[in-house]
Amino acid sequence: MSLLFRSYPLARPALFSLDAETAHELTLSSLQRAYDCRVTRALLGARPQLPVSLMGLSLRNPVGLAAGLDKNGAHIDALGNLGFGFIEVGTVTPRAQPGNVRPRLFRLPRSQALINRMGFNNQGLASFIDNVARSKWRTEGGILGLNIGKNADTPIEKAVDDYLLGLDGVYAFADYVTVNISSPNTNGLRNLQGQDALTALLQPLQQRRQALEDQHGRAVPLVVKIAPDLTPEEVDTIADVLPRFGIDGVIATNTTLSREAVARQPHSSEAGGLSGPPVHALSLLVIERLRRRLGKALAIIGVGGVASGKDAQEKIAAGADAVQLYTGLIYRGPGLIGECVEALRPAMSKQAAMQAEASAY
Predict the structure, then answer these.
(1) Whole-prediction pTM
(2) Which residue, 19, 38, 160, 239, has fewest beta-carbon neighbours within 10 Å?
(3) Closest Cα partner for 252 from 292, 279, 222?
(4) pLDDT digit string (tens) for 109-155?
(5) Is 163 helix (H, G, I), strand (E, B) or coil?
(6) Structural domains in the chain?
(7) Catalytic site includes residue 182
């Protein structure tokens, strides 16, 4: 682990003395400056190797960055340099929008958690694509997921129009595309997880993806990101609908509206989605239910509360094929990436050996 990775706990108190969103912006800009300098880029660089296959994509390791940290895709190369096996950026909406009024990001240090009500703040699809096109991550072998959503002022009954615009825009630049229907901070968005609404959304997306595949000469996997607050029956419904429309994977899960695990803590009553360790158990239940229902039909990316190597192991044991980090990165720093890779090495190596043995027959 590099000296800069080990020094993050020393820098964290200064960052945590700032407003959470200000600290977020400062961290990204500082990381970018460090990456742009050849000397500090080398000090920051890490490439833990644990090759895995996910939706036909070859990942350097199964630990990725979750969407939300780099909404505009402006820091892909700098973030990739930290050692992730794959990067997901966004959520991007067709038109730029400011999101909700600040403050809209709150720390709950006792639980190493965050509450956010950002509201898909982003610079819009055109700026996002420009940023993605300038990055070198994919040309250097990195896997990039692009996460699409709807504008806040788009009526929910017309949401499909925004998702189609997003898919059209990002398709040529993505290794996979995530359809985000689970943020709690866009009014009505989670209603798209219901059977009828999900069917009405995915059917035109499937048709458009087929047209884009023909146009570009390559198939880009499509995944759906779901909430942790679904009932078991709702999870089963989603698991039944997704394969019907050729969806390749599911990201489980987004943030939670539950406050049971953080009751009476400062900021616990703030509106928005709760992330971090309180989501871990909820996410595990959704992953386990999905895997039982889906078998091996779809890939599952486990996200929500991965704050240690042990958490990553539990996500994989529950049925996930890979994991993503966000809030754990804020509290633990980039050393968490390598910790998770090493924690997953025994299980992933065993899986690879079993697959190789099975393919030999």
Answers:
(1) 0.95
(2) 38
(3) 279
(4) 999 999 999 999 999 999 999 999 999 999 999 999 999 999 999 99
(5) helix
(6) 45-347 (3.20.20.70)
(7) no
